[in-house]
User: Which sequence fits this backbone?
């Protein structure tokens, strides 16, 4: 028997059935589905084929939904999937998309709330490790998609007058994320990618900068003082001030000057900064060193 | 150029996929054109866009989307359209296509190409939306027939006539997916040749070919394999009806090497040449008729 409740009701009903996990009966009798079309009427909506019942036909869409969500999240969270295993990861995805269904035209941002969501779960295996790992992988997706900014050149660095460094600010590239963890999740991801041995999974404070160089996402392990210095610089602190606080920290051995040089050499080689912003106005017509003239003027904080 | 806009027959292309980026950048393969999945490049400043810019400099490209949701009852997403328009201009896309379907309502996206009931109400709704979209984009779009797995009892139109009417009334193009015609014909029990015969040739700007997965009781459009012989025969039929139309091979799961995918696309050229060399058959309408 033909039934035509109208396009809007049909779409709301079909979507409610697709998003509802469980059996077909649970889907069409769910509150969301029945609010639009009562189950008795809904049973008349879809025609059977020669080989499938109307319920089986609708279930093709229902089954594919979760698989598609899992496929998308597995691309962004390969380490987490490896850590949890296929079944546990699928279980996590099912619970996640139930609370955080996609609201945008792209699947690329489907997993943005996953790290936070893991934090709300009571029964996620090794929850804190999983959450740290998810935070790292989420940061890598942001780094992957960030706008491309050219890294600071050696020439631009050499052009900064010696006396200007004290108050200069280093502006990080767009594809740059600083992260502190309670577990060695970057090393774990390295293990998944075959870059290193898997670490022991016990609690261990670690610090990482995730960044992009030549369009490749990379990670660099940091010591705590290096992380704090980089964080201060990324927050717009002047170089002299940031170094001062990094050099002298209570209850911690002072950072040696050679260490500082090593850090900056590594960071420059990695291309972590896009510009030196000078506190004093540069000569007329010049923009911040290392960025085009159309960029914010010298002295402006990023 | 059989279509009303004079869009060129670009030849035989494949979808631009990240697993082939290195090969394309390093070897600059001799391929006629690429189809680009719009949503994968709209919100990134990373490698995909960097590669796309280089590809677009060297090859003709077209944009193909999966989230236009032309049949949805949600408001049209103009932010999405703005980005789509900008991307189309950036890469000088020959045309923009999406599907005759809906993907979500009440602000959600299932990321599936969901079927619509083919009724007069839905026809009017779809025509109106296509007109608005085209006005905003300042160019005609092409709508693809999606593979579907269910039919609504409310439908009063065959899909082929529904699609042809939307195209005529909204003045848009058609992307005829030959594999989808076959998949849906199996799932719903209609004659795939008759479907193709109902498609107006002056609206067709592009054809799709792909492999699928036969589950016994139904076929899934998985783009995970070689094109089957029956679909090649349908393609020959479509070519006879529609003439030289830009043809694209889709391969999206278990993607083999670039050369394998490209080789599959080039089979289409052989089928076209064979068909062109064949004498006209009485009673079979051909594009030259």
Assistant:
């Amino acid at each position: 028997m033909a039934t035509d409740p109208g396009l809007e009701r049909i779409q709301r009903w079909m979507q409610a059935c697709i998003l509802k996990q469980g059996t077909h009966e649970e889907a069409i009798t769910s509150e969301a589905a029945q609010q639009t079309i009562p189950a008795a009427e809904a049973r008349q909506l879809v025609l059977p084929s020669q080989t499938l019942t109307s319920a089986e036909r609708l279930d093709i869409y229902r089954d594919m939904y979760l698989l598609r969500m899992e496929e998308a999240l597995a691309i962004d969270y390969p380490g987490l999937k490896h850590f949890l295993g296929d079944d546990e990861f699928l279980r996590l995805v099912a619970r996640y998309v139930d609370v955080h269904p996609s609201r945008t035209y792209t699947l690329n941002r489907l997993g943005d709330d996953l790290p936070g969501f893991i934090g709300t779960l009571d029964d996620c295996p090794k929850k804190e490790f999983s959450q740290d790992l998810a935070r790292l992988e989420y940061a890598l997706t942001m780094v992957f998609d960030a706008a491309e900014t050219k890294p600071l050149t050696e020439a631009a660095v050499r052009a900064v007058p010696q006396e200007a460094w004290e108050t200069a600010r280093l502006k990080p590239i767009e594809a740059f994320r600083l992260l502190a963890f309670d577990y060695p999740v970057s090393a774990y991801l390295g293990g998944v990618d075959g870059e290193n041995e898997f670490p022991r999974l016990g609690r261990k404070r670690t610090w990482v900068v995730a960044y992009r160089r030549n369009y490749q996402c990379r990670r660099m392990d940091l010591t705590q003082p290096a992380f704090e210095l980089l964080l201060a610089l990324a927050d717009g602190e002047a170089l002299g001030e940031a170094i001062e606080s990094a050099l002298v920290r209570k209850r911690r051995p002072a950072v040696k000057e050679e260490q500082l040089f090593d850090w900056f050499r590594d960071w420059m080689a990695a291309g972590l900064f896009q510009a030196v912003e000078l506190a004093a106005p540069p000569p007329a017509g010049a923009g911040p060193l290392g960025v085009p003239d159309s960029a914010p003027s010298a002295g402006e904080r990023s | 150029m059989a279509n009303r806009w004079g869009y060129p027959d670009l030849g035989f292309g494949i979808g631009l996929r990240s697993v082939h980026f290195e090969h394309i950048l390093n070897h600059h393969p001799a391929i006629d054109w690429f189809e680009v999945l719009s949503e994968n490049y709209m919100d990134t400043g990373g490698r995909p866009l960097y590669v796309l810019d280089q590809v677009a400099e060297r090859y003709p490209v077209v944009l193909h989307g999966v989230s236009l949701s032309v049949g949805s009852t949600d408001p049209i997403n103009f932010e999405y359209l703005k980005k789509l328009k900008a991307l189309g201009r950036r890469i000088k896309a020959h045309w923009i296509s999406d599907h005759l379907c809906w993907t979500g309502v009440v602000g959600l996206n299932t990321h599936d190409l969901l079927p619509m009931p083919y009724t007069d109400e839905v026809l009017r709704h779809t025509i109106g939306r296509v007109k608005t979209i085209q006005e905003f984009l300042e160019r005609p779009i092409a709508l693809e027939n999606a593979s579907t797995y269910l039919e609504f009892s409310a439908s009063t139109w065959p899909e082929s006539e529904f699609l042809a009417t939307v195209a005529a009334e909204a003045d848009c193009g058609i992307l005829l997916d030959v594999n989808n015609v076959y998949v849906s014909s199996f799932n719903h029990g209609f004659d795939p040749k008759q479907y193709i015969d109902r498609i107006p040739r002056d609206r067709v700007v592009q054809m799709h070919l792909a492999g699928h997965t036969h589950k016994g009781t139904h076929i899934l459009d998985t783009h995970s394999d070689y094109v089957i012989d029956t679909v090649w025969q349908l393609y020959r039929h479509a070519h006879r009806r529609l003439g030289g139309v830009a043809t694209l091979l889709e391969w999206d799961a278990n993607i083999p090497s670039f050369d394998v995918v490209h080789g599959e696309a080039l089979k289409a050229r052989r089928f076209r040449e064979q068909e062109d060399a064949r004498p006209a058959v009485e009673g079979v309408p051909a594009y030259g008729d």
